[in-house]
Amino acid sequence: AYKRFSELLPKEERENACSTRVPKSQILTLPELRANPFQHRICRVFSTSDNGDDSMSFEDFLDMLSVFSDSAPSDIKSHYAFRIFDFDDDGTLDRKDLEKLVNCLTGQGEESRLSNAEMEQLIRNILEESDIDKDGTINLSEFQHVVSRSPDF
């Protein structure tokens, strides 16, 4: 992990990799993130940067790798997935979050975008399946309940 992290830095900064932050633009060059539709959210969620540039420290990078590891517990994976899908960072997945989530998964192109009616039906289905307390949003425990029924998660 340290070798991969330090290789994202310019040669002259590699000796101090533990105390250096890697810019988001470099993190996004990782093959695992390059084609991920949630790449920007992943950087946002795992970055501890104070100035909002989504750069990562070595510890941030380790956290990200450990969460995406096959051996990470499902409750940790689902917690971070929830945070990644919570685009407005308000602690719930509401209709706007779900719409952004669907758009990320289906692509942003005109040919792949769902119609308003299709999007509305899909969001209604997601909420019907997941919104246990029927408040119109999905909280972390509701999300984890749904994920727990999906062994491939």
From TrEMBL:
Among Pfam families, the record links this protein to: EF-hand_7
GO BP, sorted A to Z: integrin-mediated signaling pathway
Xref: PANTHER family: CALCIUM AND INTEGRIN BINDING FAMILY MEMBER 1, CALCIUM AND INTEGRIN BINDING FAMILY MEMBER 2
Q: Which InterPro entries match?
A: CIBP (IPR051433), EF-hand-dom_pair (IPR011992), EF_Hand_1_Ca_BS (IPR018247), EF_hand_dom (IPR002048)
Instruction: Write out the entry's keywords from A to Z.
Output: Calcium, Integrin, Magnesium, Metal-binding, Repeat
* Organism, scientific name: Aptenodytes forsteri (Emperor penguin)
Q: Where is the EF-hand domain?
A: 73-108, 118-153
Would you tell me the protein name for this molecule?
Calcium and integrin-binding protein 1
